[in-house]
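Lest this sound abstract, we think one record worth quoting, the chain in one-letter code, the fold tokenised, each line plainly labelled:

>
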Amino acid sequence: MKTNDSVFYEAMLYTFKDQEKFWEIFRRVINEIEISEGIYFNVNILDKKIHNSMYSFRVDKNKGHIQVYITNNLMWMFVEDVFEYTNLLKKIESKLSKYMSKICVTNKYFVDSIFNSNFSNNLLEINIEGEDISEFEAETFTGSFINKTFEYRNIINFSDIHIRYLKFQPLKLNAVLTLRYPNVIQFSDYIDFKMYQNLIKSFSSYIYKTNRKFLYFHKGEGNEENNNSNC
């Protein structure tokens, strides 16, 4: 969903190897897609350690179908509708598989750390699946502070239960983030642009500080099998 021509609220999240080869191939992929499919990119580098002059991109500010934000070894690819762009994003993933991999945002260790680290204290909704689903009264739990309930603790502890999606409120912010399997993040569309950018920066910083193991991978781990094993 979008509220104007340049702000999108659905993203797929990746980690990448911060090296020259990644940038070289990424620029090549962007050029190929813009020429062959007429899909244009805006690339926003938020990380001060990355020099824009060294990793320059040709972007069209008036036709940005994909908004890219890069910071803390993370790459956010925002689009109007993730499902509409699924095939294109898979194409990008395939071409960059040696240098980029998904961040599995429904991984239970990742999810639990959001509340343990106080990035949020309010889980609003969670949907689950798995062989042990009969142990729960429902597949979807809604309300406030679900993370403090007995049901939530069982979701985290039962090895055969997996999270499809969850919604939570970042601490002291009037905003909602939705995390969907495998690496989709959706922002509430009523937030202004300043909060939008601050959430990108703050959530990236949180991931970098508390889930560093998700940012390190070996060559070839960008494939679907390895990414799913982390979920």
Observations:
- Residues 120 and 170 are 5 Å apart (CA to CA).
